[in-house]
Amino acid sequence: MPNKVAFYTLGCKLNFAETSSIGNQFLKEGYEIVDFRNKADVYVINTCTVTENAEKECRQVVRRALRLNSGAKIVVTGCYAQLRPEEIAAIDGVDLVLGSNEKFEIINHLNQLEEGNPSCIHVTPSDKLSQFHPAYSTGADSRTRAFLKIQDGCDYKCSFCTIPLARGKSRSVDIQTAVDNFKALLDKGYKEIVLTGVNVGDYGKNINARLIDLLEKFVNLNGEFRIRISSIEPNLLSDEILELAASTKKIANHFHIPLQSGSDKILKLMHRRYKTAGYENLIYKAVEKIPDLGIGVDVIVGSPGESGEDFLATYDFIKSLPVSYLHVFTYSERPDTEAIKMENQVPVNERRRRNNMLRILSEKKRAAFYEKMKGKKAEVLFEAAEKDGFIYGFTSNYIRVKYPFNSALVNNFKTVNITEVTNNGCLVELDNSKIFSEVSNG
Ligand code: SF4
Q1: What is the pLDDT of residues 386-430, one digit of tens each?
Q2: Rounded to the nearest whole angstrom, what is the distance from the C-alpha of residue 156 to the centroid of ligand 1?
Q3: Which residue range forms the structural domain that includes residue 398?
Q4: ∠ at Cα 109 (176, 197), nearest 5°?
Q5: pTM exceeds 0.85 for this model
Q6: Which of 21, 141, 222, 241 has the CB geometry, 3.0–4.6 Å to 440, for a possible disulfide?
Q7: How many domains does the chain have?
């Protein structure tokens, strides 16, 4: 009987991509991967530091694993493990605490683990996190979309963020490895590849390359596929990237561009690298170059110093912009950040109220965007799942659509006409026009 391993991942897509690659290491060693709800010999928990209750959540997951197998080895890794290893080692039942670098050497560490030892901590200091570990994930429930890690770490110093401490300096995969991994995903049948990282737009800084160089390599590969960039800082979304996206169907007409605040005073306190005027110019330039572009916006409410006026400035600013939805985060104090020491912290109930207001605004933006697309053509990648007799998919500009289930559509691109906006996606009719007509060189 092979040894069994189970994984539990918290946090972002990057963490999921990394768990997937760690899983492959275990498979190569002859392990069988089982669901976290099943009995396993090893449980690996890949943590996140963004979560407010990281410690509580981690403790619960460890307990859950030990209930399934009290003799199992428990390994905790990821950003929380990198930042607070002692806190985790103190949790009953944890055998190994591995930092952001060591998460790719779990099997070695497991082999060296001596019976009966107290939990072992192996964490490279944050300022020495310089190695890049390539990773890609393949969503468990989908053969349509995969996540490819191209970058890690961040050199920015946003006052609210602990990621640079947890993941170290900005670094990237080299172009050839990225292209090889990309091709491997296409060979497996994936049609949409989401490029992930901590600061994706910063790709290539340490290897004398740029994100545009990598994107050009990808779009020149043969095949019917589409690339989505998970998120890109406004100061890094260049004209060249916009022009490339406008010129090819292989880059989704969708960008997720963090704003964080619509008040210049708050942006300055956050140490963000742009002002509202620059952000506004970028958004208008992008929608002019790419008609019907979908734009998602990250925003943080209730950060220190955010007065009622600053919040309203954010609200009005976003309301005025042609963006399609928001991801709203409520500021929460993180140890080791500059923001936690700042004056004028916003009361928690006020943070919640602001969050609610922006969530409602997000729904209005989304509805308006969907309505605007009604009667228009769009390019959809249909996914596998059937629900209530429908097959679902996303358009290039990130609208969820549905069509009466037809197995021939699974994992296929189709041009559609959007006919009706409903609560759980837009209804569409199929159209026969081809999507990928361009000639590839790759
Ligand atoms: S850009 Fe700012 S918010 Fe994003 S990871 Fe870097 S420091 Fe954190």
Answers
A1: 788 999 999 999 999 999 999 999 999 999 999 999 988 899 999
A2: 6
A3: 377-431
A4: 35
A5: yes
A6: 222
A7: 3
